[in-house]
Specification:
Layout (H helix, E strand, L loop, with lengths): L19 E2 L2 E4 L2 E2 H8 L3 E4 L1 H14 L4 E6 L6 H8 L4 E4 L2 H8 L8 E3 L6 H10 L2 E4 L2 H14 L3 E8 L9 E2 L9 E2 L3 H6 L6 E8 L2 E2 L4 H22 L5 E3 L17 H18 L4 E6 L1 H4 L3 E13 L2 E6 L23 E3 L10 E7 L8 E9 L6 E4 L21 E4 L1
Parallel strand pairs: 4-22, 5-6, 5-15, 6-7, 7-8, 8-9, 9-11, 9-12, 12-14, 14-15, 17-19
Antiparallel strand pairs: 1-2, 2-3, 4-16, 10-13, 16-17, 16-21, 18-21, 19-20
Helix pairs in contact: 2-9, 5-6, 8-9
């Protein structure tokens, strides 16, 4: 009988850009401990320089005719959006509230687009008056927008959000293919357009978004090729030379053990290859990459303080003042089928020797077993008052969480 080989633990990726000094984790040169002492816990902190670097690095590898848009649903903190507006070529919003944030960011309204199902009339009216592009999701929405445009004697700028006739199966979150609440089925779009008056409509483009959180280069290429082929096909069938084609984004970031970051050089080479070819076939088209998570996720941390440490039937628990009400996706309740741990650290005990580590479960203050921050995590031995830090928290954190649950105070947000 032979011994089974021990399984090698999957590598845990922690983003670059956060330095360590005297065992303290730093954000933009400031110790997380100092920030916690000043602002209190829990809090989110974002390093704007890391966001800017991601935009700059991405633009450096993409074809120069490609525009980068920031989807502000990933992180709509107004101060951060105002910074992003100075670096990207456009902003994409998904509600009237986000549109308000975008309109005061300093970016031109002509470079703002508005997507999302169930847009209310007041939202369509706000978008119409502001002069932003509305990514139309259905025939009914198009009729309502056309009627509002006629009412105000103002032409509506539109693009068609297309539900493609293919599905990207390896996408982390699928947004197209099959029956979907998003967009107009590709095969019905030409006929739908023929049935609706275009008198008050300026048709500018297409928005084709297949899915998000892709970490496989082959999946990214598959989605890009299919998207470009569909755009060319619709242009021919509809007899429209579109001004722009929003090809979505979907570039992923590594959250869980075993995930590895995308190589930007490889991503850029892939887009150079296919977009340069598409540009020759559609010379008048501007290609837009719409990205949210990829631009901001790795620039943010969530910080919570250990309030209690207890033993229960052989397990060690760290109970913290923050949890799923502040960071829903961290708990696994934001799309995960099986909960997995985000990368974690004890911010005030960095560079601790491995012999001083312990395996713990980290929980929040809510009266529900769903409030979990980490399961069986090996971390430096922590005590009451120490700081648990969660990496990859710059996207879908603060505003994607049920902060009113059980009446706890909301976390603070800090932009450095």
């Amino acid at each position: 009988m032979t011994d089974k080989k021990a399984k090698t633990a999957a590598p845990i990726y922690k983003p670059k850009g956060f330095d360590v000094k005297q065992r303290q984790l730093l954000v933009a040169g400031q110790a997380v401990q100092s920030l916690a002492d000043h602002y209190g816990t829990p809090f989110y902190v974002y390093d704007h320089a890391l966001c800017q670097k991601r935009v700059v690095d991405l633009k450096a590898v993409m074809p120069d005719f490609t525009h980068i848009h920031y989807a502000i649903k990933a992180n709509p903190m107004p101060d951060l959006v105002a910074k992003m507006a100075g670096w990207v070529d456009g902003l994409d919003v998904a509600s009237g509230g986000e549109l308000d944030v975008a309109l005061v960011s300093g970016i031109s309204p002509k470079n703002i687009s508005f997507a999302g199902p169930a847009k209310q009339d007041w939202e369509l009216e706000k978008a119409l008056k502001a002069g932003v592009v509305v990514n139309v999701e259905s025939a009914g929405e198009l009729r309502r927008l056309s009627s509002l445009a006629q009412k105000h004697s103002q032409r509506a700028r539109i693009a068609f959000r297309v539900n493609p006739d293919f599905e990207l199966k390896s996408s982390g979150m699928k947004m197209g293919g099959g029956p979907k609440p998003f967009g107009i089925d590709a095969e019905t779009l030409p006929e739908m357009l023929r049935d609706i008056s275009q008198k008050w409509l300026d048709i500018e483009g297409l928005h084709i978004f297949t899915g998000s959180q892709n970490l496989k280069l082959s999946a990214i290429e598959e989605g890009l090729v299919n998207t470009l082929n569909l755009a060319k096909s619709l242009s021919r069938e509809m007899g429209i030379s579109f001004k722009h084609v929003n090809i979505g984004g979907g570039l992923g970031v590594p959250y869980f053990p075993g995930d590895l970051p995308l190589d930007l050089g490889e991503v850029g080479a892939l887009y150079q290859k296919h977009l340069n070819k598409a540009k020759q076939e559609m010379p008048g088209v501007q290609f837009i990459m719409e990205l949210g998570r990829f631009l901001v996720a790795e620039a943010g941390l969530y910080v919570t303080r250990v309030v209690d440490k207890k033993q229960s039937r052989g397990k060690t628990f760290l109970a913290c003042d923050g949890g799923m009400h502040h960071h829903l996706s961290l708990s696994g309740n934001f799309g995960q089928i099986v909960r997995r741990n985000y990368p974690l650290d004890i911010a005030n005990k960095m560079t601790t020797p491995k012999q001083d580590f312990e395996t713990v479960d980290i929980v929040g203050p809510l009266c529900t077993p769903l409030d979990r921050l980490g399961d069986n995590v090996s971390l430096p031995r922590a005590e009451v008052g120490d700081l648990v830090v969660v990496y990859q928290s710059g996207a879908y954190g603060f505003t994607a969480s049920p902060q009113a649950f059980l009446g706890h105070q909301p976390p603070k947000e800090v932009l450095l």
